[in-house]
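chain below, 188 aa
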Amino acid sequence: MASTSDIKNGFCLRHNNDIFSIVEFQHVKPGKGAAFVRTKLKSLTTGRVLDNTFPAGHKIDEVRVERHKMQFLYNDDMGYHFMDMESYEQVALKKELIDNPGLLLENADVDVLYDAKENVPLTMEMPQYVEVEITYTEPGVKGDTATNTLKPAKVASDYEIRVPLFINIGDWVKVETSTGKYVERVKK
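prediction:
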């Protein structure tokens, strides 16, 4: 058993018969009353996010989670399929458990989180940034670079992102996977 003092981002716990990962937390000590910990929890089985407040010193049921390096193979109506690079075992995850699945490219290396006690896959984590090729975007108007205007662009998986006006078809860009936002142009 852990307590609220052990809470940090990425900490996994069992709460209301589900497994959650802590996305954000804040220790609060008001002028009057007892201290508490305000958290934002993400369910590792359904993908939904909820806010919860724990009183200071509250006992928490910690869940041990293991990371397995896997490679993305393909997706179909059964889910997104991954292969363990050591055992060649394959696993399918539902779309709801993946943040920005449109940025997931074939043969991408990812971490699949497993409940160590039950050996069940919970969710998948992509690298913080991915590099993708722009497959379609409207051409920018020459000389219209004075503002921070963004335009829509599609990548290979038909995922749409917003890019600056100077980005053209065939350019490679770096995208943050958690938000789906453009970071910078990449030379390939």
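DSSP finds no helices and 16 strands in the chain. The domain at 2-62 is CATH 2.30.30.30 (SH3 type barrels.).
thats it, cya
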